[in-house]
Amino acid sequence: MGVTDFFDPDGIAVIGASKTEGKLGNDAMTNIRTYDGDVYPVNPSSSGEVYGYEFVDSVHDVDADLALCCVPSPVVPEVLEECGEAGIGAAVIFAGGFAEVDEDGQELEDEVVRIGEEYDMTILGPNTAGYCIPHLDLYGSFVPQIREVETGNVALLAQSGGVGVTSSFQLDREEYGVSAMFGLGNRANTGFAELIPVLDDDPNTDAIALHIEGTDDIDNFIEVCREAETPIVAYKAGSEDLSEFVQSHTGAPIQDRETYEEALADEGVVFVSSVTELLDASRAIADTPTPDGKNVGVVTAQAGPGIIISDELDERGAKFPDLEAETQQRVDDLLQGITYTENPVDTGRPLPEFGQVIDAVGRDDNVDMVIVYEIYEDSLGYPVEELEALAENVDKPIIFTVAGPAEGFEEERLQMEAAGIPTFRAPERGAHAVAALIDSVDEDA
Amino acid sequence: MGVTDFFDPDGIAVIGASKTEGKLGNDAMTNIRTYDGDVYPVNPSSSGEVYGYEFVDSVHDVDADLALCCVPSPVVPEVLEECGEAGIGAAVIFAGGFAEVDEDGQELEDEVVRIGEEYDMTILGPNTAGYCIPHLDLYGSFVPQIREVETGNVALLAQSGGVGVTSSFQLDREEYGVSAMFGLGNRANTGFAELIPVLDDDPNTDAIALHIEGTDDIDNFIEVCREAETPIVAYKAGSEDLSEFVQSHTGAPIQDRETYEEALADEGVVFVSSVTELLDASRAIADTPTPDGKNVGVVTAQAGPGIIISDELDERGAKFPDLEAETQQRVDDLLQGITYTENPVDTGRPLPEFGQVIDAVGRDDNVDMVIVYEIYEDSLGYPVEELEALAENVDKPIIFTVAGPAEGFEEERLQMEAAGIPTFRAPERGAHAVAALIDSVDEDA
Known about the structure:
The structure is a homodimer.
Chain A: E1 12-15, H1 24-32, E2 39-42, E3 49-50, E4 53-54, E5 66-69, H2 76-85, E6 90-93, H3 103-118, E7 122-124, E8 130-133, E9 138-141, E10 150-158, H4 161-173, E11 177-183, H5 192-201, E12 207-212, H6 218-227, E13 232-236, H7 243-250, H8 257-265, E14 270-272, H9 275-287, E15 296-300, H10 303-315, H11 325-334, E16 345-346, H12 354-362, E17 369-375, H13 384-393, E18 398-403, H14 410-418, E19 423-424, H15 427-439
Helix pairs in contact in A: 2-3, 5-6, 9-15, 10-15, 11-12, 12-13
């Protein structure tokens, strides 16, 4: 019983399941279909089947340890009480209308918390879009098409289910996935402090991405971040100016960004300032080795974007070390007559030697990580073979910023991804990913 | 003769044209093929044809007023002199190896400037990837596949040809295009001050996007921005810390961002802080009416992303006005029992009434512009009809932030674009686009 039931449920009850398309209890059923285990649509006023599963009248008639509650808020305490009696260890409550609304909602939520305590039941929500674990084909959410989200190695833990869902879709649109996505909602008894340790232990999760609005138990939050071995990246939304709107959303206390940034940065959490940065930084950190220092080698085939990248990195505390004499000689030999062979190295145009230049800079002992920029040219392609060999031979991050026509570089981009080289589609996105790697460097190590 | 020859050449000479694939003189020929006019490959050491055009020995044998010079830097002055003698009014010089390199390069560039003056010849470059004008099928560049870039209503004027190219491709990947793209390079005699007035007069250009590294003639720059009627958005790259690298690139003087921002903001130029923001802001400004004030109506189907958007806008000076009594009544009627019906309006989930809620907020006289956020659901779709009607009936910007599965919303997104409603694919991108609209408001008006 407990949080792990979300990951490995032995039977799932969908309470308030419905045959009617567009209803929340129907959407939840369409998503849970992919799960390879027993699913029980529970609804005393329905009979027959929905998506091949036979309706049952009561949660007492099922053999399940996870419940997806698709009922409106006034009915939730009663339903939850029955779940507890039936021995269900974990429940997801989708409905809104609790602490985020008014006093009556707060009372309803207090009741939910009390029932959770009485039956030792782990409750996700209320007021959440749910969760998903793609590699288990487990989509415990009412959001249509969430089951299109594929498996990745970043876990999303979002205070807002909407942000968790939109982030999952944003990764999906760029051909990535998630190891897990949890929307916390009102956090009756399951919040950051409960889920971070579980995701930290999850072998499929290589980085944890947090979306924070505000939380009461900031001390526990800090404590679990301190103890986590998996890298954590965080984005804090909701400023003090918008207090009324934020409060109305999840009942979260109003806390400013700085409070979190100061407290969590000490525990090694990397802070970012947008959803896209959260996803990009998490991917970069999940997919590459931890750099030994902040020394960045920049290799660009076009100087203008190289300047933009270097500029952003400079502002974020990167160092651009001189190359070792041997590296410099190798680069000079490769780029005879070329504009700028020192770090940042600018080849002026894509060249057949571009991969060897990256290799030279990547193997330089002065360089802790490499960022590459190149506009794709059909006739040359990207230097995938050299990059694969480099990634295999050096224990440092290599980040590749792609650019070019819509269809051009996709195949080679995916090859680079497979080789552990994260790719990004705009100069500032590559730079922000490297900035996150810089922030992840443990200065005391 | 002059800058307009770039837009309406009467015959194009490609000097240093080549049959050999991968050579710059061949790449330029592949791109220029689409042009509906006379093209002359000029190369005394080649004979026969390239892509169906017959080689000629000398620029004296052609009837052209634009030359694309695909020869290496040492030969450029000689070639340019011949172009002048042959009466060619405009030339593009692709080669690097001029003022950006060393003293000798500076002398070579001085010679280029002198020849330009002697023959009254407009010179784009040297050290540029060239330019393109998709609606004329005119791609004067050596960059492979640049001709895949389609027609749009934003003109890109980039100090770095590489940034011009990568920005064009970035727009292209998201199904947009450009009205024109010019990479300035070393600006022998054609820079921002010469091209902005021409783009301002261009009926196909609704916004001008600038990428700035640094320029000597900042007074002229400010002057043309002041006189332009077309909205201008600018991004300044190249900080003082990176001076050597920047200098080596275009020989641009080192100037900080603040210098430009202060001077140009007074002339109504909107400043942004990344390439993606430059493109998004330009699209938003090109496609929507100028707002009367900074009052933003926010309508979101999911509160979490709505908070992120409102948060970003709050930091950028947006105001969130109360809705008029009549609007509030209409919204309350539509959203009975819903979380938050005041501005920002949060419907909690996509609903059939969502389009009517947007309509109510959009027609409110307190609201100068509207931003919408909604995760796409297949069964509901996006409220395209309501949005089309609203866009037709109110003279204010409507911005739609899309989210959802990879393939889901594309058709409806394009319908919204066609109705003059710019769409963006991440919460912060929608917010930044609206922030640019806020910055475009003339406070003295």
